[in-house]
Design a protein that fits this description.
The chain has about 240 residues and is mostly helical. Helices cover about 70% and strands about 0% of the residues. It has one domain: Tetracycline Repressor, domain 2, CATH 1.10.357.10. Helix 4 runs antiparallel to helix 12. The longest helix has about 30 residues. This is HTH tetR-type domain-containing protein.
Length: about 240
């Protein structure tokens, strides 16, 4: 119940708390954000925060799981609305766009301790749902849908260097070498795809097989992310 005797929806209250925590993490960072700060930002009593999460890091982990699930929903929806069969190049471009819009998930990707503190390592070690894009590359290799004259570790090295490299180096680039944010997804995807695509064009059947593999991969990752989020919320949220 609220102080005025109005019933409180615990799910709505949990979302308010997580929204407040997100704003404060990005503004002040992990070490300078307290439960008291979050309660004040959310406009609720401190005890109401503890009614949902028993510790600050449990709250932050729930927030990161919510952001991860939201990011994967964005990617799924963008692939659905693309108007073309999905492939690895399209997936990579949409991943970059999603991370650009999700600074907290990008902070996990880059292990940004200024924003996430010690939680950066724990969140990164929890892993990307469904093994990340490495699992997808392995699936496409096994079906002969990408080049196989390079080893999987070599291909993952290139993919990681380009994808992660952008997020690590973008803040360090001199102004004269900065590229508009909306141009980056295609640049990163094109550079990576050139290192992974096979010389021979895919047949229509192979295009369809690639499309299924990419969409199934995102769907599995989203299912796992939503299960993790439900566990982070359901285990803690009380009426």
């Amino acid at each position: 119940m609220s102080p005025r005797g109005v019933p409180v929806d615990p799910v709505e209250r949990a979302d308010r708390i997580l929204d407040a925590a997100a704003r404060l993490l990005l503004r002040y960072g992990h070490d300078r954000t307290t439960i008291t700060d979050i309660a004040r930002e959310a406009g609720i009593a401190k005890g109401s925060v503890y009614a949902h999460w028993r510790s600050r890091d449990r709250l932050f982990l729930a927030l990161l799981r919510r952001e991860q699930a939201a990011l994967l929903r964005q990617i799924r929806d963008r692939l659905r609305d693309a108007g073309r069969p999905a492939d690895l190049e399209l997936l990579l471009a949409e991943c970059v766009r999603a991370y650009q819009r999700s600074p907290l998930v990008a902070a996990v990707l880059t292990r940004n301790t200024e924003i996430l503190g010690g939680l950066a390592r724990a969140a990164a070690e929890e892993g990307t749902p469904s093994g990340g894009v490495t699992e997808l590359v392995a699936t496409l290799r096994a079906a002969g849908l990408v080049r196989t004259d390079r080893t999987l570790p070599e291909q993952v090295t290139v993919l990681s260097a380009v994808f992660l490299g952008y997020f690590l180096t973008a803040p360090l680039m001199p102004e004269e070498f900065r590229v508009p944010d909306d141009a980056v997804p295609e640049l990163v995807a094109d550079a990576t795809w050139r290192a992974l695509r096979r010389p021979e064009p895919l047949s229509p059947a192979e295009v369809a097989e690639t499309d299924r593999a990419v969409r199934d991969h995102v769907a599995r990752a989203l299912t796992i992310a939503e299960e993790r989020l439900a566990a982070a919320l359901g285990a803690e949220v009380t009426a």
